[in-house]
Structure formats: structure tokens, C-alpha cells
């Protein structure tokens, strides 16, 4: 296991993150975390809304300071209370205190805004997060499931006012869901944010276990009958590359996310040590450029406007003059 710096901070995070949303059995969860730690993994991801996830994690984690624990707030704590959800200061303060109690700790390493709240000014959220950092309750901040312009606005505001900026961005990202490539990934790379990619196996569709041959482990999460032609095209491409390289399809799918951007840190959720071990094997897989290209082309995806339009205009003498194709990029 190697480590990456988290955003523009000095925090060292492992190159594969462990999601704990699906943890249910404490004994198995403890075995998974121990195996992950033995492999060098150090990031555990949860959220206030993951049922009893925070409490379970808090009850089984040993060597607390050995781990980088991230949790999230925004989602409702009480459906009847209009102030028990959102990104405003009141919900942040109450949610944070509850997470600290559940996790049996006095600080959160990474505190994530779970989703953009259109009704709360970003200034309020960033100032409230910074206050929690200055109070020592959280160390770093991140944001999940938000438009690129919101994240860029928030971090610009934070730097102007000497508040703590977001160091991480959390988004869904896999071969079947590449929307982040339009604005979010370029924004994160430009601003120096780490990108934790959730659902990197597309909820099991790219794991190679949906249409596994008889006698092989099969996915319990995905009904093969529910797969679309697009799903099957991506899964078949992943399986073909895996067969060529002599590795597992899940490892190819995870390696693809890493090959697309150095900012990406896959966030995997597992239910067994065997599943974790297979996913960890992705760290040893380097995809040839031709394999990445074939995976990209296996399902249709367009960046759309303005990216495609700008790319078409870039080599045009009408736009950038006769030397348009003579300028080397950074």
C-alpha cells in the first residue's frame, strides 16, 4: 500500500479507502478492518445517516489514532424537524456532537458535507466548519455530491477569508458513470482536491460476479435481468481486459478509475475479507493505454458543451491563429 497526500494538506491517506456503510456483523467488520490495516490501509469512511454504522465502527475500532476516520453530515436526524437536516450551523453542530459520541472519539479526521444544500449560504457552512476545526473537533473537511461551481466558490471564499478549505471531493465514479469527468474532476485537479470515488464497481455491475459461471461466487446485490445493454457492454469489456491480464474484473474496474486521474482514490465497500483482498489486488494492476482506451470506448460517453466545443476549436487557426497546433500544453 502506498499513500497519497489528502488534497493540499500533509495528511497521508492510503490509495484505497474502505467504506463501512454495509457493515452489519461486528465480528466480520472487525476482521475486515484488521485485514485492511494489515495491508497498510488507514482510511475508514462512514456517515451519520448510515443506520447504526457510526456506532458499530466506534465499538470495534482499536488503535483509533492509527486510522483516518471520515464521517458526513447533512441528512436528516429527525424527519419532523426542519432544522435537523441541511448544511447550516445548527445541524452541523448537533450532527457533529452526535457523531463524536457514536464514534467514541474526541475528533473527526475528515468531516464531509454529505450533499449540497441549496438553502444554506455557502458562507455559513464554510465558517461553521472552520469554527469546528479551530475547536479541534475536526481536522480536515470535504464535500460530497455537489456541483463543481459550488465547490470552487466555497474554496475561493475560504481562502479569501482564511477559513479551512475543502481538501476532498466525494463523487460516484466508474466506467458506467463518468459524469464527474465533465466538470468535477477537472475542478478537483485544478484546485488540488483529492477525489474519493464511491461506487467504483457500479454497485457490483463491474465486479464480474453478476453473470459469473456456475460454481463461481455471484453478486447478491444485482439481478442479472436488471442489466441494460450498456451495463453488459461495460461488464464484458472489463471481463475481456481482466482475462487478458490474468486478473479479476473487479481489479480492472478499480484500476480504471485510478488510471483516469491521480486525484482519484477508490472507496470500496466489502462484506468479507476475501472481497477486500480481491479489491486490494487492484493496486498491483497497471492498465496498458490500449486497455484504458478500449474500456473508455466500450460505452458511449461525451463530455458535452463546453468541453467538446472547446476541444474542437483549440486546433483552429480561426480561433488561436496559425500557431494553434504548435503550443505544447503544461
From TrEMBL:
Keywords: Oxidoreductase. Residues 16-299 form the NADP-dependent oxidoreductase domain. SUPFAM superfamilies: NAD(P)-linked oxidoreductase. InterPro entries: AKR (IPR020471), AKR_Detox_Biosynth (IPR050523), NAD(P)_OxRdtase_dom_sf (IPR036812), NADP_OxRdtase_dom (IPR023210). It holds the Pfam family Aldo_ket_red. GO terms for cellular component: cytosol. The keyword Oxidoreductase applies. GO terms for molecular function: oxidoreductase activity. This is Aryl-alcohol dehydrogenase-like predicted oxidoreductase.
